Amino acid sequence: MGLCDLCGLCGKRFGFSLAKPPGGKENGVARLRREGLRAERRQAILEAAMKVFAQRGYAAATIRAIAREANIAQGTIYLYFPSKRDILLALYRSMILESLEEIMARPRKGDEAAFLRSVLVDRIRRFRENARAVRFAFTELPFHKELREKFYREIALEQLGRIQTFLREQTARGKFRPLRTEIVARAFQGMYVIFALAEIVYGDGEVARLTPEEIADEVVRLFLHGALKKR
Amino acid sequence: MGLCDLCGLCGKRFGFSLAKPPGGKENGVARLRREGLRAERRQAILEAAMKVFAQRGYAAATIRAIAREANIAQGTIYLYFPSKRDILLALYRSMILESLEEIMARPRKGDEAAFLRSVLVDRIRRFRENARAVRFAFTELPFHKELREKFYREIALEQLGRIQTFLREQTARGKFRPLRTEIVARAFQGMYVIFALAEIVYGDGEVARLTPEEIADEVVRLFLHGALKKR
Lengths: 231, 231
Fold this sequence. Notes:
The structure is a homodimer.
Chain A: H1 10-13, H2 28-56, H3 63-70, H4 74-80, H5 84-105, H6 112-129, H7 131-139, H8 145-172, H9 181-201, H10 205-208, H11 212-225
């Protein structure tokens, strides 16, 4: 049995061979298996890391502790991430940006309300699923200058940029009135971030009882139509 | 020279007598002076406390250190605040609630846009003036369970309640359409809190360059009219 090209251990640990067949080619099934395993392993590292970051704080967290938590050899982690900073940023990137990209890539049926609603529902769901990462972003991340700057520039501002692009597109299509997108995109972000802050950081029970759909419906209505009664 | 009724020290420290005249009555000028001095002293304690909280963290901060920072006798602090928790809550109450009450108490000229604008301008100005307290509310306050709960219930939810009341009044007057105020009031809060988070916690330079008026004008327009182009 050959050695897998990920960690040199998985042939044993997972009970099947991930080796490339002789000649360096692998068949389609083997490739899918390998990719699936890689994604699973990556996810396990991210989850273990968040647990360790939340327990020990970012400064005291070590790759060794993350490896132990994920039940993976320490050296294996480095095959996925060069440093603990990269682990944390990957975690936020996956939570904040990847799903936003998926939603933005879906064919849009010209319905900006449905689009905004799916962005909001997704944001709120992900916040709830990743409560530890959300709390960490408010309470601890700000204290690590370089990390904070990278997080803000590469993830928070990226997210903001996508929203600004959407707003500009809608204005160009004649759907939205001209907006100061650097303000309106942030206000839109604020309209879902506040629910994460209230529920996860401050334990607001009234927010916890609302479904993502209830919040999204009301926020979309407000964002599109405003609070004034139409005459 | 009689003893002042605040601290027993000020006759000496401030170089003029705050004593009540014989007979226990004081004239108007003396009363105003005493009240002004009390307010000034209280403010000095709040500012010193925030400095100490930010430097040492809430748990390690002591009344003794706050007194030293404010250049006031330790015993004097207790004439104003029973505990350090009360100091911190008074600080947020003054920053968040008192000015909101002032704005809400002003005669409203039936113009909800002007009212919302003055709330927003005031919030953003106060955040900037009290950057340390804002950072503390995101990063450290969440870790002190009892304090966090008191802060959230007595200050954050109070603020939310005032906004909900305003929304309901406007709906009753036929100005606003029916709104789920528990969601819309939070969304409104989010639309200014996000600017404090971005600028003060994450150092967002683009936000720092915006004036409170610019932010408020665009957010009010969005809140009242929404983003859709009118047809």
